[in-house]
Amino acid sequence: MTEIARRDNVKAQEDEELIDFLELMRVEDQALAMAIEKERDSVENAIEKMHRLNNFHLDEAHIREANIAEANFLLQMQEMERKWLQQRQVEEAASLKEEEEDRRMLERLIKDMRSLRMGIRQRKEAAEKVQSVKMRISERRQAFATRLSAIEIRQERERKALHDSHSRIVKFDATQNMSIYRQLLQREYEDQELEQTVTTMRGDQKARGIKTASLLDAEKLHEAKMLQLKLRMQKEAEQLREEQLLRLKHMQKVCDLELDHVDDLENLAADQKVQELELELEQKREMEQEEERIQQQNDTFKAFASQRQLQLKAARIATQQRSEARQLARQHKVAAKQRETQFFENEEVIKQNARALDDDDDKRSLGFSEVDGTDALSSAQQSVAATELSDYTDAGTVMNDNTAANKGKAITEVVNTTELQEQQARDTARLEELAKRHADAMEALRTQQREYLASMKREQGEEMSALQQEQEEEYKQLKVQHHIEMDKLLKTQMLADQLEADNEMSNELLYGMLPRYVADAMKEGTEVEPRDFECITILYSDIVQFTNLTAKSRPQQIVSLLNRLYTAFDSILDDYTDVYKTETIGDAYQIVGGLNSTDANYQKYAIEVVDCAFRFIQEVETLDMSDQAQEKLHMRIGIHSGPAVGGVAGITMPKFALFGDNVNIASLMEQKSSPNRVHVSSSTYELVKDAFDFEKRPELVPIEGGEAMTTYWLVGRKQSADADKGGRGKQNAAKRAAAKGVGSKMMRTGAGH
Asked: Which residue among 55, 121, 368, 390 has its CA within the 20 to 30 Å range from the CA of 336?
């Protein structure tokens, strides 16, 4: 039972399970039918949704094609922009190349212009240098001509001074004797002024007609002296001319040397100028090359910077294009998501409408459908949120790209500016260093040129000093030679003067013994014929009581007295031109005036004889008698003028004597005279009464033939006669000194000139 009950229970359980199973199957079938229906609806909805989705995808495809077309258009635009940028780069490169070519052409033109200008300047400087050299040489030549003119003028002055000195010497000697130049006038003169002076003197001589016998020896002596003087003058003129020619020769050498020095200095200056110009040109060329290299570096740097800027610009454009592409893709994506969201929102509305129609659906199905719609909407919302997040990320990326691009641009610009400044600083430093090196090279060249110029000037100075020293030595040798020649000439003339002096002493002794015309005739070896004198003045003198004096005195005292007295008388006679001592016998002293003259100036010689007598008395009154036996000495003097005959007697010891009544009358005048008085005849009185004061003798003096003569006592000179006597005495003393020392004076004068 139990078994059965168990079996019944099992069977009842199985039946219940079957019923449950069948119920379950029915429910499942219902559910399956409902599911199938639902599935059918779902399939229909899915198919409809598929149609809408297909339509949506078709729209999306069309939109994508449009976006692709838009992207292609944008790509084409970017390609066009890239090509435009490349073209711009090419154009800028061409423009830079053209600018570089233009710049090079301009620099070439500038260099050509500079070279042309430098050539023109060099030619101008060369022309100016040549003109300057010509002007300097002309100035030098003009200065040399001026110096030569000055030297010639000075030499002419020296010759003129020498001629004037010679003329003064001739004039001075001519005043001593105006007739000594007759022989010289027959010679040829080199000195025209001397010739003119002598000619004038000869005319004056002819006008006065001065020619006395007492001047014949002086004429010959002066003729010889004048011949010596002429030789010295000619020698001095020749030596002066030689010195002047030597000076001109030296001046010519100095001028030639100075011109050579100027030429050398000008050539050196021209060479140095050429060296400076060449160095300057080389430095300019080097500077231009350095500037060109710097300019090329700058151009390269600028091209690199421009290329970098273009690359940066291209990168910016590419970045911009990428950002635009991303932005466009983002816009497309957002638009697609918005459409998808709108599509799903529309689907949700459809579902809501379907749920409203199917209110009888079970909660499970409704729940299942709500879950599905909610999941789809959530998926759509998540997709939209993801899209918005992606858009935000893309926007941030674009912003970051732009910021990075701008920052890169700023950094690039800063780097370019810094590099450009550094490059400019380096270029400036190189140019300054090059300019300093050029300045140092130019200064070194100029220093070398100055040193060379200084050395050349020193050499020229040494050469000029050597030339001047050589010229000085030559001038000294010439002066020594002239001195030797002049010494020889002076020695020869001194020998001639000594011979002449010896001859003059012999002549003076001879002229003291005989009258001049007699002595000259005897020297010439001719016979001396007796000579008639138209009028001569004879003086006789003797010492009063000379016999008593000799008796009281020793012979030595008498000799000393007579020597002292006659020496004083002889010195007085030297002051007169034609007063001759004929004889001295004991205390008798006889002089005659007018023996040596051929003119008819009887009054002159009578005045000289009377004046000589007056001075004899003065000399006797002042004669030193301290060594004599008596304190005073007295003398009688008698003078008479008239015709007489003179001649020479004897050969071994010739004696000149005067003969005639007038000689005896003169002796008578002395005999009838008084101590220390001058007794003058009437004929002499008539000749000299205008020059002297006389006292008429009261008694007449008897003469031979029973006749008586009026005579006069000499009282003294008249005032005019005293003055004339003083001047004449000085002239006579000067004449004697000139006659005795003319040779030595001429030598000193010639040596001085």
From this structure: 368
Strand partners, 592: 538, 580
541-575 pLDDT, tens per residue?
999 989 898 999 899 999 999 999 999 998 998 88
The neighbouring-strand residues paired with 588 are: 585
Yes or no: say if 60 and 337 are a contact pair by the CB < 8 Å rule. no
Amino acid at 576: Y
Number of H helices, E strands in the chain: 11, 10
The yes-or-no verdict on residue 475 having pLDDT over 70 is yes
Instruction: Indicate whether this model's pTM tops 0.90.
Output: no
Query: Contact, 513 vs 230, CB < 8 A?
Result: no
Strand duo 588-593 + 531-543: pairing: antiparallel
> Of 296, 274, 281, nearest to 97 (Cα)?
296
For residue 97, give both structure tokens. Answer: 């190349």
- Helix, strand, coil % over all residues of the chain, rounded to 5: 80, 10, 10
Token reading at 598? 């051929």
3-state DSSP assignment of residue 637:
strand
CA distance 216 to 182: 11
Q: Which amino acid is at 110?
A: I
- 468: region left, alpha or beta (phi > 0 left; psi from -120 to 50 alpha): alpha
**CA-CA distance, 131 to 470, in Å (whole number)?**
34
Tell me the H-state helices in 622-703: 661-671, 682-688
**Per-residue pLDDT at 1:** 58
Q: Where are the beta strands (DSSP E) in 485-547?
A: 531-543
CA distances from 20 to 28, 31, 90 (A): 11, 15, 93
DSSP one-letter code for 215? G
DSSP conformation letters of 292-306: HHHHHHHHHHHHHHH
- Model pLDDT for residues 70-117, shown as the tens digit of each residue: 778 888 887 888 788 778 878 877 887 788 788 878 877 887 787 788
Question: What does the alpha-carbon distance between residue 517 and residue 595 come to, in Å, rounded to a whole number?
Answer: 8
Among 283, 284, 305, 295, CA closest to 427:
295
* Spatial CB neighbours of 746, under 8 Å, sequence gap ≥ 6: 169, 225, 228, 229, 232
Chain-centre distance of CA 460, in angstroms? 14
pLDDT at 212: 43
**pLDDT > 70? residue 399:** no
Strands 692-696 vs 708-709: parallel, antiparallel or unpaired: unpaired
Beta bridge partners, 658, equal 646
Determine the Cα–Cα distance for residues 673 and 640; give it in Å rounded to an integer: 12
What pLDDT, in 10s, does the model give residues 603-643? 998 999 999 999 999 999 998 888 888 888 999 999 999 99
Q: End-to-end CA distance of the chain, in Å?
A: 211
Cα angle 281, 286, 291 (rounded to 5 degrees) comes to: 120
Tokens of 228: 């010596």
Of 616, 617, 618, 620, residue with least CA distance to 632:
620
Measured between alpha carbons, how far is 221 from 181 in angstroms, rounded to an integer?
A: 11
Q: Is 574 helix (H, G, I), strand (E, B) or coil?
A: coil
The residue to which tokens 């001593």 are assigned: 176
- Inter-residue contact 539 to 591 (CB < 8 Å): yes
d(CA 695, CA 716): 10
Name the nearest CA neighbour of 541 among 666, 448, 370, 446.
Answer: 666
